[in-house]
Amino acid sequence: MSDFLNQIEKRRTFAIISHPDAGKTTLTEKLLLYGGAIQQAGIVKGKKGTKRATSDWMDIEKERGISVTSSVMQFNYDGYCVNILDTPGHQDFSEDTYRTLMAADSAVMVIDAAKGVEAQTIKLFKVCTLRHIPIFTFINKMDRDSRDPFELMEEIEKILGIQTYPINWPIGSGKDFKGVYDRQKKEILAFESDGKVGVKQAIAKSAKLGDPNLDSLITAPLHETLAMDIELLDGASYEFDRERINTGRLSPVFFGSALTNFGVEPFIKEFLALTTPPLARHSDMGMIDPMNDDFSAFVFKIQANMNKAHRDRIAFMRIVSGKFERGMEVKHIQGGKKVRLSQSTQLMASDRETVDEAFAGDIIGIFDPGIFSIGDTITTSKNNFKFDPIPTFAPEHFARITQVDTMKRKQFVKGMEQIAQEGAIQIFREIGGGYEEVIVGVVGVLQLEVLEHRLKTEYSVDIRIQTLSYQYIRWIENEEINPKALNITSDTKLLEDFKERKLLLFTSQWNINWATEKNPDLKLVDVAQN
Ligand code: G4P
User: What's the pTM value of the predicted model, to 2 decimals?
Assistant: First the structure.
């Protein structure tokens, strides 16, 4: 295989999704430790960074540096080139978190073994299923008292609607978590703590089921329970099916403890072998193959003003095909212009390095003089294709924004539009109206504070934020309908977004049901795809 093809073939680009506190940061760190990308736990993105108090956010420049530098983490492991995309969580949870998933080829879903499937996991999972990417499950915190593993499998299947295939099975839990049983090799991996939790890899001893020494390795009662579990599992679980895994219909499941390292190494090895190399991507001229000689990429995230002095923005791009070389000239399809990609950064742990070359599957950050929007395509191909747009996801918090000083109207509109173009907020207005009254929607409530801070520091505009009681947004999918003639409750608001798509804001699920019952032709969606 040529070096070019080999470079692409060995890439694995994925995101880790979870509800806050399930262990995403800890697992990410362990993967980086195993990959040799960092030497000690605790330095990646700072749990402090993710769990900072709201007021800290205002000390923003430095903080931005932190959240940006950890946008992608790349390392080599076992012959693979691994790209882990950071999906902001906790306070940083925003539409960016969803959009980042549009750049991943697969996802690892971390679930707390005591808690099962939680709210944020459900939201992130739903976004992954839009593209039918493979979804792997890591059931974490097995070193604590956990729920019954069969019950957890059932919950995943029922709540998320995905079938499961346990690749391994836990032996005990809590203080008695001894290891995992590898179903393919029919082998037990018993872990031993090295006494230095968090730094070294776990020591594992392997033995076959039925081995006379097994009782001493995992105790006789656990040996017995395991034998019964495996019999039950082999009889009842779904068949291993690569095709179903690749299309996100069957989730391979692993058990472990990121904190004590138990099960982390078997997970990463097996996961990298099973998950997919860079996927082809849909465009308006058909599928674009990663091995294509022409370079192409799309923008999935824009990070503004990392350096106050320069007002620069960085556009994060996922390379879909070909090879990137620094200084290359590409066509920016949406802008209709040629651009030279001379300032490029790859963002890795705490360093910001300049990248000279990168391949399909990689993420690069390109200096953006303000020309790129979320979803834009760049390519060296003669065919002016555009990748399918990145969907607009439902915000969950809404507020009315008014400016304090009406003399600054121009700056206000410019600031709001630019920040909306970056995808940090969504702005809505009355149908056919102007932006006298702007309603803003955000996925994470902190975005409203960021908006206020940025308008003040970057545009010298003070605003008033009045939070509104709407909880749900639904775009009206059928264009033939007259939205003004809809039968809706008086507390439901009809608006349009800045792409002039009509939408409704609801205060309750009850009101959504009312609208769909009273207007049988009305088609509502919570993700705007066009
Ligand atoms: P997140 O990124 O998904 O939000 O979770 P994070 O890794 O920050 O983990 C949340 C808490 O759970 C942390 O404890 C972490 O140490 C703990 N944790 C993660 N994995 C495991 C595991 O396998 N077993 C056990 N027992 N705990 C685990 P914390 O007290 O909130 O933070 P810290 O002060 O320990 O860093």
Answer: 0.90
